[in-house]
Amino acid sequence: MSLFNYEAVDREGNERKGEIEAHNIDVAITSLQNRGLIISKIVPADKKSIFEANITLGGVKNKDIVILSKQLSTLFEAQVSALRVFRLLAKESPSPILRQALEAVAADISDGSSVTQALSKHPKVFSTFYVNMVAAGEESGKLSSTFTYLSEYLDRAYELTSKAKNALIYPAFVISIFFIVMYLMLTMVIPKISQILIDSGQELPVFTKVVVAFSNFLSNYGIFMIVGLVVFAFLAFRFSRTEGGAAIFDDIKLSIPAVGNLYEKLYLARIAGNMNMMLTSGISMVKTLDNTAQVVDNKVYEQIMKTVSQDVSTGASVSDAMDKHERIPSMLSQMIRIGEETGRISSVLDTMARFYEREVVNAVDTLVGLIEPFMIVALGLGVGGLLASVLIPIYNITGAV
Fold first, then answer.
1. Same structural domain, 247 and 279
2. I need a labelling partner for 94 at 20 to 30 A (CA). Which of 48, 199, 260, 393 fits?
3. The predicted structure's pLDDT at residue 59
4. CB burial class (10 A; 0-12, 13-18, 19+) of residue 203?
């Protein structure tokens, strides 16, 4: 089967764009014509122009999905038909990728597909978790409520993730500027001053000799070191995109002091929140665990949730299955056990999700509070040490005169 992108006009004169799977282009054209469409353009999906290819890079932002969910909730609550809802939102969407997906969803609904079936054809836009939640809403006849729950949950999850990421941006920026400034001083300023000190004929302090030697190394081989670091970073990035590489990097991420604790709480909040949402919507426990594994966004916890799902499918309780894994805190598994015994597991998971969300916020505030004084001390020692290595020999020279 091949994928084709098409542009067409329906019997009412409305423009239609979307994707269709077929064995070849002739079958695709016949299928579209059977739907009553007049085709104006149809091309294989893998043969796009450079401009079209650029549009599809990067995917859809989480913020766009949050906004879309709120809009869907409002429109479905107003009892607007599904076809009209997706056509309207497709026109208003600021994201080209999301707009194309919504247009295709509207076209599929027009052809008789359910909302769930139409959304499931776009896994890069709508996650398995999202599609399953919509499916549960359609089955129960509470699609409006489902989108309301989704918008609230995704909004909360987006704010939490954004706060965690933003906490690391400022320190990373300051440290990057520090290294750039130090590199420029060591390659442009120190060599000129060191030549004056050497010409003076005086014995230089050991620390000054170290700084001068390091400056000479950067002046002669700095460009090669930078190229090596760039190549290493590129190869590391490519490796992190592989299955094994992602697992290694995710494990390292959880092992970093202070930062690892922050990520651990973030993933636990995501696990508890996803499970609560899906169980509340009437989705089975095994399916809930499988879908949570797919959306947790960490290979370590993904594997844990898959193992828990396998254990539960063979008859084990969720709490017992989670107890086997060190990465799952005993408090979480014990609270789930209480939920299983009382029949209120969804309520317990909601409580735990909110608890870990508060823990993430507290961890971020603590991390920022620790990083700022650490950076001030580190920057002060770095700049002060560099200046001292130069000023002390100059002071000795002037004192000798």
1. yes
2. 48
3. 59
4. exposed
The H or E element containing residue 19 is strand 15-22
Q: How many domains does the chain have?
A: 3
**Tokens found for residue 33:** 């014509």
> Is residue 53 very low, low, confident or very high in pLDDT (cuts 50, 70, 90)?
very low
Distance separating alpha carbons of residues 118 and 280, to the nearest angstrom = 23
What CATH number is given to the structural domain containing 135?
1.20.81.30
What residues have CB less than 8 Å from 108, skipping those under 6 apart? 18, 117, 118, 121
pTM of the predicted protein model: 0.67
Question: Could you tell me if 357 and 266 are in contact, meaning their C-beta atoms sit under 8 angstroms apart?
Answer: no
Q: 263 with 392, same domain? A: yes
Q: What are phi and psi of 128, to 5 degrees?
A: -60, -40
Q: What angle do CA 19, 20, 25 make, to 5 degrees?
A: 115
How far apart, in whole angstroms, are the C-alpha atoms of residue 350 and residue 274? 9
Look up the domain containing 67 and give its range. 62-154
The rounded percent of the chain whose pLDDT value lies above 70 is: 92
Angle between helices 259-280 and 143-184 (to 10 degrees): 170
Nearest to 101 by CA among 14, 4, 17: 17
How far is it, in rounded angstroms, from Cα 318 to Cα 288? 11
Structure tokens at 263: 């990520």
| Tokens found for residue 158 | 């987006």
